[in-house]
């Protein structure tokens, strides 16, 4: 009977001396209670940096898309201008030739 009392006391002491394991709600990793507070602050800051990075990436992507659209617009306008100028030039030359023929 004494053996069981000692065993029970031993189990209770072991249970009391165990550190609690806490799961971080941000990264979902397990940490011992002693280091969790430090981890929590670091994890929170890292999470904020990740969110800020995602926002900046979205802004850069949007600006890249706008730049591409503007480049396409300028390219099309340049081609149109080139061919219009060539057409006007040819029209002018043909009118000049037709004048000489008369």
Concise account of the structure shown:
The chain contains two helices and two strands. It is mainly α and 102 residues long.
What's the number of helices?
Answer: 2
Q: Mean pLDDT across all residues, rounded?
A: 81
Q: Count the beta strands.
A: 2
- In N-to-C order, the SSE pattern is HEEH
Coarse shape:
rod-shaped
**Strand line-up across the major sheet:** 1-2
Distance between the termini: 134 Å
The largest sheet, given as strand count, sense and whether it forms a barrel, is: 2 strands, antiparallel
Uncertain regions: pLDDT < 50 for 5+ in a row? none
Cα Rg: 38 Å
Folded structure, characterized:
This protein is mainly α and 102 residues long. The chain is 83% helix and 6% strand. It has two helices and two strands. A two-stranded antiparallel ribbon has the order 1-2. A hairpin with a 6-residue loop joins strand 1 and strand 2 (30-32). It is rod-shaped and about 125 Å long.
